[in-house]
Amino acid sequence: MNHLYTKIRFFLFAVLTAAAFLYSGCTSVQVPGNSGEIREYALANGIPVYVKKNSENQLVSLYIVVKGGTALLTPDKSGLELALVRMMKSGSAKYTYEQLQALEYRTHADFFGFSQNEGSGLGIECIDYYLDDMLPALTDGFMHPAFGKAEYDTMMKDYQQKLQSTMNSPDSLCYYTLNRTVYKDHPYETSPDATPDSIGNISIDTMKDLHTKLMDARRISVVVVGNVSASGLIKKLDETLGKLPALENSFTVPEIPPVSVSGLPVVLTHQAAAGTGFMYQCFASPSVTSNDYIPACIAADMYSDVLYQIVREKYGACYTPASAVLSSQAAIGLVMLYRVSDPGHAAAYVQEARQLMDQGKLVTGKDTAGNYQYASISDRLESYRNIYINNRYSQMKTNSGVAGKIAASILQFGDPYTADTMIGKARSVTADDIIRVFDTYWVKGNSRWFAVVGPGAESTVHF
Question: For FRET with 177, which of 76, 250, 284, 345 sits at 20 to 30 Å CA-CA?
Answer without folding.
Answer: 345
